[in-house]
């Protein structure tokens, strides 16, 4: 019957008029609007389908108590817009300065209604092509060798209209509530429907199932009016400041921890929810028991016939009856609309609520299907910020760049610089780049070395999970070695059981930089591109395979890695050791001397002085260099103390005399050069 229905659906689709687009995007939430912006800027044929009448429909309902936990920092003390995005967790990426979230709210934790208004303006001001009131209810494949990926995606909406596209971008988010079924679960209220009026809970005893931010948000709302609140979950509470994962419990919602630890009746318990059972007595009170007590029992016979845990253990923790039980277990991905032909399968273990995708955010089962936004968080679950706006705005841009290269032959954006700018380029990026900072250990800057290390090509924010595929995914070549720049926390600094406030938790000396705990830049050097096998066999908890050389820039309290001795000098020496060259910059006088005393000139002399682009040192610069110990004092004076008059070639001639080099007239030098 199923095969017959599937065949009929294919016939119906093939017989109907199909509206074609190169790219179909499901969902006009933050991720859907973000990828729509990039597609529109590139001039691509796309359409966004949104089931509601406006974008961001999830935020119209959630969080239920309307306060976001994404920070909106108004001031950073800096005017650099890229740096400021490090502390703006709500704005989407665009060229329009009006669409910065701080222009919509001054609250550090904004109201969700503001996010709805912001997303509406983002879609309208940028004139994104969103088709509202269109719920996609079925997605299947049509095999076709002429298609980009060997097949087309066929979409059907609630009105049985059909659409056809070459690439499918799923940005529908996570909106199906996680539900645990156990005896008596019909008495449980869901987070999505429970009252948000505290007065409805006055004088009541409440049990909350779950231990995430939605559970604590709900508890925070009713903390002052209830008799007491108990919270049950299978795992211990995880604090975001200890795990450095923004999806764990945030301080803004953790009031229940105070009342628990300060013995004000509220409490936290650990236990598997599937082992629980709820029994309702004649007064409407809810009693917690265990499933095995109900085996071979008839719940409908009444509570008097059921053994409760307190009948055997009189100090059982949850022996007091509850007035209400609330489920706050988060959300999962909606797999129901995808035909089996797409092989959209859930993950395993703690990521089973997400679809299976590759580190490139492409579905493991279907080429050309990419998952964006919150639903793509399986790539970095509990590691980075890919499940939140301030993270997936960058991974969405990365996916767009992969698509541009794959389907339109547009290589990954890059800039080429002389090797003398290598240190400065790295220092600039680690001090201001927001993508590296937010998506630490996931996105990386890649430096591809050119022949003889005379120049380099700089690629920004590439997904390191597909580093082995860099040449294919970016259209760039890595023939002469590469540097990979990422941000990392210390290996043993993050965890639910870690004390992140211990004494001497920070490292300040450059020689101990590898022991840095807080977020800091790490540079990996590879003589060749790592292989797929090396990526799979990398050490546990390492984001990358073992490199030929590695350098940690020591953590900084101000996250300002510009200290000449602590940050820049060790980095430059590391780069020089990897490249076997001198990356210092020299004045023209020094390059002139090197030309006569060394077989090989430093790159700054080759690319500057030898091309008549050297910086001639003025008396003021020379004096500063001498005072700093960078140059010898070649200034000569007569016996009266007056400085001898300079000739055009005075400094060069003096340098040569000091090193025993015969000085010949300038004309002879010119003739020698000509010869």
Automatic annotation (TrEMBL):
Probable flavoprotein which may function in endoplasmic reticulum associated degradation (ERAD). May bind non-native proteins in the endoplasmic reticulum and target them to the ubiquitination machinery for subsequent degradation. Interacts with SEL1L. May interact with OS9 and DNAJC10. Interacts with TXNDC16. InterPro entries: Auxin_biosynth/cation_transpt, FAD/NAD-bd_sf. The keyword Cell membrane does not apply. It comes from Melanocharis versteri. Pfam families: Pyr_redox_3. It comes from the Eukaryota. The keyword tRNA processing does not apply. One of its GO terms (molecular function) is flavin adenine dinucleotide binding. Belongs to the FOXRED2 family. This is FAD-dependent oxidoreductase domain-containing protein 2. GO terms for cellular component: endoplasmic reticulum lumen. The lineage of its organism: Eukaryota, Metazoa, Chordata, Craniata, Vertebrata. GO terms for biological process: ERAD pathway. Residues 1-15 form the signal peptide. Its cofactor is FAD. Keywords: Endoplasmic reticulum, FAD, Flavoprotein, Glycoprotein, Oxidoreductase, Signal.
């Amino acid at each position: 019957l199923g095969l017959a229905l599937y065949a009929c659906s294919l016939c119906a689709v093939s017989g109907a008029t199909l509206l074609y687009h190169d790219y179909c995007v499901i969902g006009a939430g933050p991720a859907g609007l973000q990828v729509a912006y990039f597609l529109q800027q590139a001039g691509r044929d796309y359409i966004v389908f949104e089931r509601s009448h406006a974008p961001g429909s999830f935020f119209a309902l959630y969080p239920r108590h309307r306060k976001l936990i994404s920070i909106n920092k108004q001031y950073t003390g800096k005017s650099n817009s890229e740096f400021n995005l490090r502390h703006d967790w709500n704005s989407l990426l665009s060229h329009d300065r009006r669409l910065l979230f701080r222009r919509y709210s001054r609250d550090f934790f904004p109201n969700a209604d503001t996010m709805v208004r912001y997303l509406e303006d983002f879609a309208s001001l940028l004139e994104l092509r969103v088709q509202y009131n269109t719920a996609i209810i079925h997605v299947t494949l049509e095999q076709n060798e002429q298609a980009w990926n060997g097949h087309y995606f066929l979409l059907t909406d609630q009105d049985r209209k059909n659409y056809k596209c070459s690439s499918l971008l799923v940005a529908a988010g996570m909106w199906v509530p996680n539900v645990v079924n156990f005896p008596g679960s019909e008495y449980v209220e869901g987070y999505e429907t429970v009252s948000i009026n505290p007065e409805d809970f006055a004088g009541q005893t409440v049990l909350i199932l779950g231990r995430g931010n939605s559970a604590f948000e709900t508890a925070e709302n009713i903390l002052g009016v209830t008799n007491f609140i108990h919270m049950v979950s299978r795992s211990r509470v995880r604090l975001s400041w200890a795990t450095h994962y923004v999806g764990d419990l945030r301080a803004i919602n953790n009031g229940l921890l105070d009342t628990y630890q300060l013995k004000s009746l509220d409490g936290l318990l650990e236990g598997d929810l599937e082992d629980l059972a709820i029994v309702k007595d004649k007064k409407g009170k809810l009693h917690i028991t265990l499933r095995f007590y109900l085996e071979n029992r008839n719940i409908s016979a009444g509570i008097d016939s059921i053994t409760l845990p307190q009948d055997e253990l009189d100090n059982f923790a949850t022996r007091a009856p509850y007035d209400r039980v609330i489920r706050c277990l988060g959300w999962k991905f909606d797999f129901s609309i995808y035909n089996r032909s797409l092989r959209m399968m859930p993950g395993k273990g703690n990521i089973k609520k997400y679809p299976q995708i590759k580190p490139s955010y492409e579905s493991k089962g279907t080429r050309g299907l990419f998952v964006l936004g919150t639903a793509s968080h399986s790539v970095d679950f509990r590691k980075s910020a890919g499940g939140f706006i301030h993270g997936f705005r960058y991974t969405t841009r990365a996916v767009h760049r992969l698509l541009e290269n794959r389907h339109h032959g547009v290589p990954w954006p890059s800039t080429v610089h002389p090797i003398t700018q290598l240190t400065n380029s790295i220092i600039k990026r680690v001090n201001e780049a927001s993508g590296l900072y937010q998506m630490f250990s996931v996105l990386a800057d890649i430096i591809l070395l050119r022949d003889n290390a005379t120049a380099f090509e700089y690629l920004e924010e590439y997904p390191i999970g597909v580093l082995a595929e860099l040449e294919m995914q970016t259209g760039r070549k890595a023939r002469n070695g590469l540097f990979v720049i990422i941000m990392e926390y210390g290996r043993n600094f993050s965890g639910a059981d870690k004390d992140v406030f211990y004494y001497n938790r920070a490292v300040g000396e450059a020689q101990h930089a590898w022991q840095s705990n807080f977020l800091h830049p790490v540079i990996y050097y590879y003589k060749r591109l790592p292989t797929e096998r090396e990526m799979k066999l990398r050490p546990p908890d390492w984001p990358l395979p073992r490199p030929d050389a590695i350098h940690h820039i020591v953590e900084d309290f101000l996250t300002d890695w510009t200290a000449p001795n602590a940050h820049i000098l060790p980095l430059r020496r590391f780069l020089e050791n990897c490249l076997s060259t001198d990356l210092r910059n020299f004045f023209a006088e020094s390059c002139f001397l090197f030309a006569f005393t060394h077989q090989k000139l430093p790159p700054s002399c080759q690319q500057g002085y030898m091309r008549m682009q050297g910086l001639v040192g003025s008396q003021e610069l020379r004096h500063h260099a001498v005072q700093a110990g960078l140059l010898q004092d070649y200034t000569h004076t007569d016996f009266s103390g007056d400085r001898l008059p300079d000739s055009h070639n005075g400094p060069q001639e003096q340098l040569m005399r000091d090193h025993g080099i015969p000085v010949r007239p300038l004309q002879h030098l010119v003739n020698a050069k000509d010869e």
